[in-house]
Amino acid sequence: MGVTDKQVAALTAQLAGRGDEHKRLFAELDAEEVGFEYSALVGAAVALAVDRRFVENGEIADRKAVIDFVAELRSRTLKAAEALDPTVAEQLILQNLGKGDISTLDNKTVFGAQIIVLAGLIADEQFSEAELTSFMATVRGVAETWVSNAS
Asked: pLDDT of 15-43, one tens digit each?
């Protein structure tokens, strides 16, 4: 099965700050979907958002830019500070930039960090609804490729 409209809608709702809608749609996904297609969707969104933030004209930002972003992200709310391990977040971003390794981390830890990092990156983008829709269409295309290649 590929990425579904409901999976895209759930992540879009979360990234747009529509918490109740996200919770409702996410609750309708089964565990297999969350563990495979939805996780691929989140991973693709993180990869694209990290590139948007940390790669400019083919130049990858240095480690300090990643550390500064994670520190600033954790400072936004007490909940973010408590939920996001800075080392995990930094490694996640660096891995997406080809400079880190998350192979020793379990899937739950990675997924949790992805959600928080992604939310921060998207909040900083200040997308309009149309821009978020366009971003998510690109994300979906990447995720569908990953899912089909993994099958």
From this structure: 999 999 999 999 999 998 888 999 999 99
Token digits for 31?
């565990």
Helix or strand (DSSP H, E) at 13: helix 5-15
Judged by DSSP in three states, 35 sits in helix
Distance, in Å, from the CA atom of 58 to the CA atom of 145, rounded to the nearest integer, reads: 23
Sign, Cα dihedral of 118, 12, 105, 93: negative
Helix (H) or strand (E) holding 60: strand 59-60
Distance of alpha carbon 78 from alpha carbon 6, whole angstroms: 30
Distance CA 25, CA 14 (A): 10
The answer, as to whether pTM is greater than 0.90, is: yes
